[in-house]
Amino acid sequence: DPHQDTALGRLHLVLLGFTKYLWAASLPPSGCQLTIGEKAARDDAEAWLHSLSQAGLGDRSVRVDYVMRYCSSLVGRHLHSIAQLGIFIFGHHTDKTLLDAWIALSRLSAALITEMIKVIKAFIVSVWFLAQVCSLTVVILKRLHVLIDDFFDVVVTFNPTWAMYKSKFHHLTHTPQFIKRFGPIGLY
């Protein structure tokens, strides 16, 4: 069955999907006549991008001038960094619902983009109450279900049409089964 045997990877699901949706909703497009408020929002986002430390991004550091100039046509490499930095870039000038969406996305993408768990003990402690009654795989998948549900709740509050018309939201519900079958989504 191609629907069950083909997992949707992090690039198309998280980066080119949810991160790009929130990026477009948070930042006015470039190359058009902007209002004073939109120009201020773009300038503010650019200033925040310049000021943030990129030490933890590794080889995915952001070229700020490029990202701001071509903000509507970024690729997965750029969006990977945006997924990590978005909460800091937009945390002070977006409305509460959009900020909540960035927070939920950052939690979800951290769980989904993980390629391996280095300190398994610390990971288990973060979900210790489930670890007492379940196996490790069940604990991780239950935590992922909670993160997915939280993300859905926030996104539906921000823009209900996304959940109805963007197919990636449907695919996200199947992600725990893909992880159980194929391993961490960060690998494919």
Structure, described:
It is a single chain. Residues 127-133 have low confidence and may be disordered. By secondary structure, this protein is mainly α. The chain starts with a helix and ends in a 6-residue tail after the last helix. It is built from twelve helices and no strands. It has helices at residues 2-5, 10-26, 36-51, 64-69, 76-90, 96-113, 120-125, 128-131, 136-158, 160-165, 167-173, 175-182. It has one domain (2-187).
Poorly predicted runs: 127-133
The dominant shape is globular
Please give the number of β-strands: 0
DSSP strand content: under 5%
Domains, number: 1
Q: Strand count, sense and closure of the main sheet?
A: none
Number of helices: 12
* Estimated helix fraction: 55-70%
Order of helices and strands: HHHHHHHHHHHH
Average per-residue pLDDT, rounded, comes to: 80
Gyration radius (Cα, Å) is: 17 Å
Keywords: Membrane, Signal, Transmembrane, Transmembrane helix
Describe the secondary-structure layout.
Elements: H1 2-5, H2 10-26, H3 36-51, H4 64-69, H5 76-90, H6 96-113, H7 120-125, H8 128-131, H9 136-158, H10 160-165, H11 167-173, H12 175-182
Helix pairs in contact: 2-5, 2-6, 2-11, 3-5, 5-6, 6-9
Quick summary:
This protein has helices spanning 2-5, 10-26, 36-51, 64-69, 76-90, 96-113, 120-125, 128-131, 136-158, 160-165, 167-173, 175-182. With 188 residues, it is mainly alpha-helical. Residues 1-24 form the signal peptide.
